[in-house]
């Protein structure tokens, strides 16, 4: 069953305590290979931290394979159960293979998930950031022309509050360092916010350290603040 997923059994931060996970619909779309490229990168990167979501994705992928075989109107082989269990233990192909992305040399020793590292041409600490507001900088990651969404790295200063906003489509946000809080809870290393178009929130970075996030969006944000809306074309959010 074809897919474009992260070899997510590789856990760069196995010590991370995950409190926020991908929802079932995202996991099913990821396993089926129908999740957009930008969202898939964030989902796969989260699974490098989260054993639970990685296991659920493997289960959905294996189950989908069995259903596909049944649709062929042929009886299941005697080893069908064994094959199913084997698929649960097998890694999924790494995100980026279909677009021909090779693994950069710096990624081989990086603690970043490989799904993300494939989209960085240099180590994260050497990344060039675009300052779009006091305390807020972004770095856009290039996705393939067929991708519908956009993929960004965000770096937000300690104690900084983002403008309140909603979403024109689905959004996935993965915390890579630091932490923030909003109406949905507190998000720290490895946590993912899986938000649909009905969600509105105002992330506020916790005091003490900046927060770096990987964010995939299907459509531009909908800001409630007038000034944020005015500067939206400049910021690209």
Determine the number of helices (DSSP H or I, runs of at least 4 residues): 6
Q: State the separation between the terminal residues, measured CA to CA.
A: 35 Å
Level-2 CATH architecture of the largest domain = Sandwich
Q: Low-confidence runs (pLDDT<50, min 5 residues)?
A: 1-11
Decide which structural class fits the backbone.
alpha+beta
- Report the principal-axis shape: globular
Radius of gyration: 18 Å
- Mean pLDDT across all amino acids: 80
Helical fraction? 25-40%
CATH superfamily heading of the largest domain = Jelly Rolls
What profile does the largest beta sheet have?
A: 6 strands, antiparallel
The proportion of strand residues reads: 15-25%
Strand sequence of the main sheet, in spatial order?
1-2-3-10-5-8
Number of domains: 2
Could you spell the SSE succession in H and E letters?
HHHHHEEEEEEEEEEEH
Query: Can you identify the CATH class of the largest domain?
Result: Mainly Beta
């Amino acid at each position: 069953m074809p897919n474009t997923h992260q070899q997510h059994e590789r856990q760069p931060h196995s010590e991370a305590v995950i409190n926020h996970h991908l929802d079932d619909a995202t996991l099913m779309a990821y396993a089926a290979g129908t999740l957009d490229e930008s969202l898939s990168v964030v989902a796969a990167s989260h699974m490098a931290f989260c054993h639970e979501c990685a296991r659920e994705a493997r289960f959905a992928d294996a189950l989908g394979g069995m259903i596909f075989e049944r649709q062929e109107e042929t009886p299941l082989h005697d080893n069908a159960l064994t094959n199913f269990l084997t698929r649960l233990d097998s890694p999924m192909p790494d995100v980026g293979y279909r677009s021909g992305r090779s693994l950069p040399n710096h990624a081989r020793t990086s603690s970043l998930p490989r799904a993300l590292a494939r989209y960085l041409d240099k180590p994260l600490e050497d990344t060039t950031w675009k300052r779009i507001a006091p305390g807020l900088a972004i770095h856009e990651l290039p996705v393939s022309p067929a991708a519908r969404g956009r993929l960004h790295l965000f770096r937000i200063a300690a104690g900084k509050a983002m403008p309140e906003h909603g979403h024109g489509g689905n959004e996935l946000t993965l915390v890579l360092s630091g932490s923030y809080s909003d109406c949905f809870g507190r998000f720290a290393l490895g946590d993912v916010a899986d938000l649909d178009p009905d969600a509105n929130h105002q992330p506020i970075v916790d005091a003490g350290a900046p927060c770096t996030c990987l964010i995939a969006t299907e459509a531009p944000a909908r800001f409630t603040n007038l000034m944020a809306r005015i500067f939206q074309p400049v910021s690209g959010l």
